[in-house]
Amino acid sequence: MMANRWEGPDGVISSEIPRGSLIRPDTSESYGIEEGTTRCREERTHATSVAEVETTHGTGAEVRRERRGRPRRVELETLVEATRHYLSELRGYNPETVKDMQRRLRNVCKDLWQLRKGPAGSPRVSTTDPKQLSAEDIGILVEHWRKEGLSPSYQAKLIDALDGFLLWAGNPVLTTMRKMKHIRLPKAIYKDIVVLTQADRERLRAAANSMDGWEGSIARLLIALLPCSGLRPTEFRTQRLDGVDTRRWQLFVTNPKGKGVYSTSGVAAPITPPARQAVLDFLAERETYLDGERHEALLPWRAPDGSLGTLGQHGLTRIKRRLEASSGVKFKTKDFRATFGQDYIDRGVDVQAVSKGLRHGTTKTTETYYARIRSENAFRAFEDADERLVRVVKPSS
């Protein structure tokens, strides 16, 4: 058998394998010192990299233990499923209210999960279990909302939704926090009431008068009736004809807010004098539009195929956009409701009467969101009350 041979740099052939050379196990060929040195360098580099990784992240066992300690996504899924169960057990709420609560709880779940799996060194909640959430966890959540720039009013809505959910889960932490007041919870800040000025209403009226066809008829009724009845946009759009009483000048609202929950059909709204001629004109135009046909809706709408239905939300939105484009006045249809309330408060109508016209249960809702006595009017009332009792005599010069 021929011995393994190695040819050195000087060309001398030897059977001895010098140090640093590597022999390929499946052949008699050998690697020279240069290649062996490269392999050694690579092995040393790999060993250094492993050492750096272990120094930075820990050994493999330590990394696995750390991963086991991280929150799993199943925690988020369990939390979301609990909120669904809670919402399914709610009773007596309007479906739209339940949708709002679902939206808010979904946002709360998302933020809790984000704070649960946050990077080391950042504020992290201890759990996403609704039964185990602590005051410290709520404080971290509220601080996160503040840093995110959420308005205090929206934060208060999120807190209310979370409070109900936690109480359902048997955790009264938020109720206790409100009593102890050791963490400042967000409170709603009521915005200024937005009303349409008399100049805006005149421009909108002129724009409605310039519109032709059935959309023009609806636009003129919208501009005239809503600021003189306090109807909500949906109530206006879904009103039935038989609810319009032109003898007593009242509207028996067909679909009031909260129907079937905290309100009933047949709730009356006033039709004040400035709108009455516009109502009569519209009813005459309605007869012409129907051309002998009958329909229960106050605002019937003829489809392209000729069939009759009720004016939809898209149709009302299109009319609103035409009014805005023609008048240059940007508005929300619900602004007319606040305009109704504030207009009559400014003209001296008692707030209780205005609240009744807006169909509120208490004047608090009216004064919070729709109409408030202005400072100058309140001060003038003091002047009028005392004028009869006190006579001011200017000193003679």
Outline the fold blueprint.
Blueprint: E1 6-7, E2 13-14, E3 22-23, E4 30-31, H1 33-57, H2 60-69, H3 73-88, H4 95-116, H5 135-148, H6 152-168, H7 173-180, H8 198-209, H9 213-225, H10 233-237, E5 244-245, E6 250-253, E7 267-270, H11 273-290, E8 300-302, E9 308-310, H12 313-327, H13 335-346, H14 351-357, H15 363-369, H16 375-387
Helix pairs in contact: 3-4, 4-6, 8-9, 8-12, 9-11, 14-15
The succession of helices and strands, N to C, reads EEEEHHHHHHHHHHEEEHEEHHHHH
Classify the fold: give the CATH topology of the largest domain: hpI Integrase, Chain A
Count of the separate structural domains = 3
CATH architecture of the largest domain: Orthogonal Bundle
Strand proportion, as a percent range, falls in 5-15%
Spans of at least 5 consecutive residues with low confidence: 20-35, 63-67
Q: Any overview of this molecule?
A:
The structure is a single chain. The protein is mainly alpha-helical. It has three domains: 48 residues; 108 residues, no CATH class; 182 residues, Intergrase catalytic core (hpI Integrase, Chain A), CATH 1.10.443.10. Helices cover 54% and strands 6% of the residues. It contains 16 helices and nine strands. Strands 5-6-7 form a three-stranded antiparallel β-sheet, with no helix packed on it. About 5% of the residues have low confidence.
